Amino acid sequence: MKSKNITLIILGIFFLLFPFIIKSEYYQHLVIIALMWVVIGSSWNLLAGYTGQVSFGHAIFFGVGAYTAGIFVTKLEISAWWGMLFGGFAAMLIALFVGWVCFRLRGPYFALATLAGSEIIRLVATNWESLTDGMVGILIIQSFRSKLPYYYIVLGLAAACIYAIHLLMKSKWGYYFVSIREDQDAAESLGINTTLYKNISLLISAFFAGSAGAFYMNYMAFIDPHVVFSLHYISIMAILVGIVGGVATIMGPAVGAFVMVGVQETFRSAFFGVAPRWISEAHALVFGLLVIFVIMFMANGIVGDWGKIKRVLLGTRPSA
Amino acid sequence: MPLLELKKLVKDFGGLKAVNEVSFQVEKGEIFGLIGPNGSGKTTIFNCINNFYPITNGDVIFKGKSIKGLKPHKVCHLGIGRTFQVVKPLARMTVLENVTASAFCRFNTIREAQKEAGRVLEFCNLNTSKEKLAKSLPIGSRKRLEIARALATRPDMILLDETAAGLNPSELDEAIDLIRRIRESGITILIVEHIMKLIMSISDRIHAINFGQTIAEGSPKEVADNPAVIEAYLGEEYARS
């Protein structure tokens, strides 16, 4: 317990000082993106990892958050930073509808319904040109030229998200979420209103994903439906972050986010320019292989199977 | 006024009448046994009482009010706890967490819920396995965990669905003792059981069904001597002799 606290304090100090240690804007950018994925991955983990409702449609909430921030600028002519607040609420509003429809289904059918939902909303965003400007996308002017403000905003968001989920999972709601994951019928017979608590989990999850989306709008200053509602870049990536880092662990998605963003960037940049260009095309393949590896050899992810990883690396035998 | 009353309960699955006009009354404080051969509709009746299945016809009255059509979690809050024949432990949670989750039914803070869970686990002799994962328990303990979870919701009535199936003789004696202690604590028990040693020794009254229909009701002795019951279990020849 003590050593865990010390690790957390050291990590905290490191992240607070990071932009002063590493001055390269490129690396700062990568860490900002990774921290954004910490938020999305954690939000996915709350719903899928803890509550057992695997979502293939987290792009819905991310995209709605991003578009809320964007539309604030293009239609209401107010700062996109308001999106950081209202993007989360807009995502919750959509989540109410998604939950109302999709929670009639269980297990894989729920997952497929969320997948369909994200495709529907992507097409709506593409075609509702009077509101979203369709494929043209939304371009805004960044508020800051330096990376620093963005870094600290997303760091705060990530820390708040992790801490909120940590507190949540120690409360009555946390117990209820895990009970629902383990056995929905048993949970119901124990007096747990499973429909209500599944929706609560979904709403909280959507709020954080939406906030991350709004941050993305502010930071990248450009969105279009094919990026923010993308199955590949958002929904699947959210799942990978969760699975690689460790499903149903607090720090799992945080670790997963850094690993996945690292792998993605390594391939996108063709090993930082060392390898031939064509290798960047292989990143989807490597993602697939990575997931297969994780599922076969460390089904609980990096954090969940940390003990096992340590044993293999140090070559020691299990103590028990 | 009976605590629980079934009024001409009917449940059909398509063309099959799984339960056909079954009526009985369970008085407060008694142990009421429900018996019948395999597939006679006992578990279906349980699922109708706490509304996992919508009732086709008839009514279920609990504490003088109809509970027909209420969601299962509402039925639990009203005071009916249940166990499952095929145990449903929350596998990747510890025993204590399992029971704490259900204690949240009456308590809101984690401290109170855990305290209640500890009390119930002690009552069910599960204290030593508190920190174990539910999936690591042997069947005897899993059955007791089912009971503990139901008790932690502070029910007025508990539905026990074959809690003694698969137990060895010493576990069976423990189960009988546990059921008696539950009754002593003031909880009414409706129990489905195949093990005659158990059901005959603890029930105050027994209701027997076959093919979804009532065939007998009365004291254990009366039901055991009833020709219709003997026929249902052993065949026509034994009923005549």
List the helices and strands and how they pair.
The complex is a heterodimer of chains A (320) and B (241).
Chain A: H1 2-21, H2 25-50, H3 58-74, H4 82-102, H5 107-127, H6 129-132, E1 138-139, H7 148-169, H8 172-182, H9 184-189, H10 194-220, E2 222-223, H11 225-228, H12 231-245, H13 252-268, H14 283-297, H15 301-304, H16 306-314
Antiparallel strand pairs in A: 1-2
Helix pairs in contact in A: 2-7, 2-10, 2-12, 2-13, 3-4, 3-5, 3-10, 3-12, 4-10, 7-10, 8-10, 12-13
Chain B: E1 4-13, E2 16-26, E3 31-35, H1 42-49, E4 57-62, E5 65-66, H2 72-78, E6 80-82, H3 95-103, H4 110-123, H5 139-151, E7 157-161, H6 169-184, E8 188-192, H7 196-202, E9 205-210, E10 213-218, H8 220-225, H9 227-234, H10 236-240
Parallel strand pairs in B: 3-8, 3-9, 6-7, 7-8
Antiparallel strand pairs in B: 1-2, 1-4, 4-5, 9-10
Helix pairs in contact in B: 3-4, 3-5, 4-5
Feature tags:
heterodimer, A: 320 residues, mainly alpha, ABC transporter involved in vitamin B12 uptake, BtuC, two-stranded antiparallel ribbon, 16 helices, 75% helix, globular, B: 241 residues, alpha/beta, Rossmann fold, 6-stranded mixed sheet, 4-stranded antiparallel sheet, 10 helices, 39% helix
